[in-house]
């Protein structure tokens, strides 16, 4: 028979079981007869199974109750029961069907569906990784989970997500974890953290804590390894071959979901940030200034906009090359950011033009304090490949509401003020710090 038939007395003791139990539970009939069936139950399923047995013994035959038992080899078997009570014999008659395979298929289907739903609904990569943790934890025993992802451009590996069961703690110390993940990426297949690597870290015999199991599965999307899924398991519940099979299958869906989320994040970032400097671009700046205007209208607040242009920047490109010009722009962006508060916005409009949004600044005098700070920050020359570059900025200020009550008016005023500043100061960009202005550009020329 494919199914296992049990006869169980009112106390739950097995009175009879057929030979099919050997295949399903790993025990021969003589090993089970006389034992309590309850003792073989998965601990999590005990309470509801007792409840179900009471029901059956009250004279309600049932078909379709499911629970799990621990086999002799330590694996779980999923069982579906048909059971009834014989009052005459004072025996519970149960026919057990092995539905482990069915359950596994169901679990894979659920996980696949849940992952694609999470990929669809998650607003960002962080949210997606949190949901993936929950989905994996429903599939196999997980004490903690980490996800390492490769940077698309640099190919550097870093941990984008690490979480223990209790919601805290980095999962594995970082250098060891990176070394382990690098090995998994090279091998291209799931791998358990070898004890030798743990010993190399602790330098002695492994403690119970160190015996925690670590299983890493490469995340492969479009034939490329994009990261590694690292699972922590308690010393008592190392992942079985079946768990590994499940994880291997699910990891393919996880990889696709992460790949898509990364791409979406990148597209969103590219649409809002300047690639060279990492500063907000014109579009994001407009959003920020519009929100700031709305806040000012509500709270009768004030703000200032600084329009900044690098004097004679073209000559850096012409004389020292575009790459040097790029480095200079990056350094200017960095220095500008150091001059303002976290709540302020520094953005690059394009080329050598930057803007700064200073919320809560009401007067020309207050804005000028920041202008002076910025000019001071640009005083130290930048050293690029032995070239000492000095720069000068032209800066124009517009105040809300004095010079405009909306974005375009404010930018126009600040731009005009910047040109007026350029006319007044003249260009003094020098490299490698010679005394004369470059290229004969005089304020009158512009
Ligand atoms: N290296 C580099 N140069 C850029 C980039 N974007 C624009 N530029 C260059 O920046 C220069 C901008 O020059 P302008 O603002 O027109 O002129 P300028 O030399 O700064 O002169 P003034 O503005 O009158 O002081 C042009 O040569 C552009 O080609 C960039 O991303 N990297």
Automatic annotation (TrEMBL):
Domain PAS: start-end pairs: 1-60
PANTHER family membership: DIGUANYLATE CYCLASE DGCT-RELATED, SLL0267 PROTEIN
Organism: Aromatoleum petrolei
Chain ranges of the GGDEF domain: 301-431
Ranges where the record places region Disordered: 425-446
Protein name: Diguanylate cyclase
Domain of life: Bacteria
InterPro entries cross-referenced by the UniProt entry: DGC-Regulatory_Protein, GAF, GAF-like_dom_sf, GGDEF_dom, Nucleotide_cyclase, PAS, PAS-like_dom_sf, PAS_fold
One Pfam family here: GGDEF
